[in-house]
Design brief:
192 residues, alpha/beta, Rossmann fold, 6-stranded mixed beta sheet, 24% helix
Length: 192
C-alpha cells in the first residue's frame, strides 16, 4: 500500500542566483560559509519553524491537510546541494529520526535519483515528507509518482514547481489514487 499522504516541499531560502555583492550569503549550521550550497539565515529560520508546522509538541499539525511524517526524504547532502537536507534535518532531529534510516532517507541525488527515490517512498504506507530541489519536483518526482499511482488531477499541477519557498504539495490517497492540492506554510513574513 503506498503512503496515505505524501507531502513535498522545496528546500528553504538560498542565496540569490546569480549571487550579488551585498548578500545574503549562505552559511552552514556551524556558521561557516556554505560555498553556495547551503541556506541563508532566513532559510535556517524556516527550517526551524517546520518543526511546529509538521510536528507540534504533543499536538497535531494546525493545518488539517498536513500530517506528521513517519518518513522524511531529502536529497543526498553530498551531491549538488545541501539545502534539502539542511531544511528538514531539524525536523528529523526533533522527531528523533536517524540520518540514513528508513525514517530519514538521504540516499538519492537531485537530477537522476528521483525515480528510485519515488519507488522507495511508495513502499511506505504511512505519511511521507519529501524535501527536494524545486526544478526536479515537477515534472520529475510528480511524474514518477503519477506513473505508479495515478494522480486524479495531474493535469492541473503547476509545471514547474513555483519559484517560492512556502508551498507544500500534498497528495492524499483515496481509492487507490492520489489527489493533489497545494498548501501554504504561512511560517515567515512574506509567505503569501
Amino acid at each position: 500500500m503506498p503512503p496515505s499522504k505524501i507531502m513535498i516541499i522545496r528546500h528553504a531560502e538560498k542565496p540569490p542566483n546569480p549571487p550579488n555583492k551585498s548578500g545574503p550569503w549562505d552559511v552552514k549550521e556551524d556558521g561557516q560559509s556554505g560555498g553556495g550550497k547551503s541556506l541563508i539565515v532566513l532559510g535556517w529560520q524556516r527550517a526551524g519553524a517546520l518543526n511546529a508546522f509538521f510536528a507540534p509538541y504533543k499536538s497535531k499539525p494546525a493545518n488539517t491537510e498536513i500530517e506528521t511524517p513517519h518518513h522524511i526524504y531529502a536529497a543526498n547532502p553530498k551531491g549538488e546541494t545541501q539545502r534539502p537536507f539542511e531544511t528538514v534535518e531539524p525536523l528529523a532531529a526533533w522527531l528523533k529520526y536517524k540520518e540514513g534510516s528508513s525514517q530519514f532517507n538521504v540516499s538519492y541525488d537531485v537530477g537522476g535519483g528521483e525515480k528510485d527515490m519515488v519507488k522507495s517512498v511508495l513502499e511506505h504506507g504511512s505519511p511521507v515528507l519529501i524535501c527536494w530541489e524545486h526544478d526536479h519536483i515537477m515534472p520529475d518526482i510528480m511524474e514518477h509518482i503519477n506513473k505508479e499511482v495515478p494522480i486524479t488531477n495531474y493535469a492541473h499541477i503547476t509545471n514547474p514547481f513555483p519559484n517560492v519557498f512556502y508551498l507544500v504539495w500534498v497528495l492524499d490517497l483515496k481509492g487507490g489514487k492520489y489527489t493533489w492540492c497545494s498548501v501554504n506554510q504561512n511560517l515567515m513574513a512574506g509567505d503569501v
